[in-house]
Amino acid sequence: LHVTGHLDETNFARLAGVLQHHLRECRQTGAVPQFILDCAEVSYVGSLELKELLDLAHRARAHGGDIKLTGLAPTIEQVSNLIANGDPLECHPTLAEALDAFRSVAA
């Protein structure tokens, strides 16, 4: 998924809704929930939104999947790591590296 702009309380709900919908579909079908969010054009992520994204990643991980981020600004990644308390969102510089990370887990 390509994400742009600010992810704050006014517009994060749409992204969360898409991810929650696909998590439900994966649970119902037995598919592994694997999401990659291209964040190269994200300029801001609120701390509450990072916590919710981390919660969604934990839900995906509980079913053998994950949410991986690409192109995240270093300052946002640092805040994400602080909030994660030892279980951070997985961030990759490029889409290819995020895809490779999913492939290496499946192998």
Overview features:
107 residues; alpha/beta; 4-stranded parallel beta sheet; 4 helices; 4 strands
Describe the structure.
This protein starts with a strand and ends with a helix. A four-stranded parallel beta sheet has the order 1-2-3-4, sandwiched between helices. The protein is globular, with a radius of gyration of 13 Å. It is α/β, with parallel strands linked by helices and 107 residues long. It is built from four helices and four strands. The protein has helices at residues 12-29, 47-61, 74-84, 95-106; strands at residues 2-7, 34-45, 66-70, 90-92. α1 packs parallel to α2 and α2 packs across α3 (74-84).
* Helix percentage range: 40-55%
Strand content: 15-25%
The termini sit apart by 23 Å
Average pLDDT taken over every residue = 92
* SSE sequence, one letter per element: EHEHEHEH
The biggest beta sheet is recorded as: 4 strands, parallel
The strand count comes to: 4
Task: Strand order, main sheet: write it out.
Answer: 1-2-3-4
- Which structural class do you get from the secondary structure elements? alpha/beta
Low-confidence stretches: none
The geometry reads as: globular
Radius of gyration based on Cα positions = 13 Å
Number of distinct helices: 4
